[in-house]
Amino acid sequence: MAKAKTVWECSNCGERYPKFLGRCENCGSWNTLSEVVVAPAPKSSRAQALTPKSNGIPQSALPITQVQPDDHPRLASGYGEFDRVLGGGIVAGSLVLIGGDPGIGKSTLLLQTAEHLAKSGRMLYVSGEESAQQIKLRAERLGVGSEQLYLLAETDLEAILLEIQALQPRVAVIDSIQAIFWGQITAAPGSVSQVRECTSLLMRAAKKWGVALLIVGHVTKDGSLAGPKVLEHLVDTVLYFEGDRFQSHRLLRSVKNRFGAAQEIGVFEMAESGLVEVENPSQLFLSSRDQATPGTATIVACEGTRPLVVEVQALVSPTSYSSPRRTPTGIEMNRFLQILAVLEKRVGIPLSKYDAYIASAGGINVAEPAADLGVAVAVAASFRDRLVDPFTVLIGEVGLGGQVRPVSQLEQRLKEASKLGFRHAIIPNSPVMSDYGLRLSRVNRVLEALIVALPSSEGSE
User: 20 to 30 A from 51, CA-CA: which of 36, 45, 270, 416?
Assistant: First the structure.
């Protein structure tokens, strides 16, 4: 009988080494190697027997024209926002990984989704961190109580697979993957080996039985999913549940999706009865237009295929330090520094002697370049202490030479702004099929945009 051996495993990427190294040669991380005991798996295993790859029959390749398409319709989750992020609904046999900070609402979302899915078939909710009685308490608060919703408090992977095989649910929830263990591996639950092997076996089970699996994953301090990166490659869809703990709204963002568009977002609001959908997300990220203040501008950001009208607020004040402070909230730091440099070099605003702060309303993260023009105008407006028309939106990418570059999905952005009652749009000098009732001001450079947005301000290049 083969003996168990000791290896050193990287907690970041899962690479194994026969001896300790300070730095992982595969991913380059420092001090991530930990000692694990690897026991040889027996030839027969219940978990492997439950999910055979081909039942011992060799699979032959087929021309793509002879492959029969899957005629199973997507399952509606009960949330239009959730279905939007998934690409139209839950695909049978898919493996969806949902990550997020503790207490953000992952279990609440999945329990409410399970209640809706149980109306049309059997639904299994597997909890490795709570007992069935604890889940029942939360279910009563959320109004969940379908007869077709089955609860299983279990952490043994083999027992979970046996229950899925016996119950044959349409969808199963695993909460969470870090709590599940496979008995053939001696490592502790949540370790790299356990997470990788358990996810691999669950993936094979989902593909074979056609059961959609929704898996909850923990996140690390930097906000990334805990466990090896191979975990994200194994699953079909990776979703992040985001939100500010001081705000009631939550964002469900698609990072990877084999069955739909990536970077799509769904907007929810946490209420006493659980999560509810936000029908008009743009209103959530807009402050009152009747209380306009200097340094405020409005942009239209696109998250996936959804345009969102977001208000950005800037504050420029004299610095009392030798090095001025730059503090962005919701805007990427490097992009903010680049815009400040363009304003100083190309427009002549001496920002090197001022602290500069920028924030997006509602705490939403805006990473696309189309927000550059709005950020630049907000900073200049705060510096000049002037107001930007609250019914004006700014769309455009700012180049290092001070030029305003075209952006994608411009017509969708203008349409969204028109729906919310905006009357004026400052955009790059590019053709559009329709103005959607907006007065369009086309600009080629940042200075031109400042003259249009701040008519009484002066600037020189």
Answer: 36
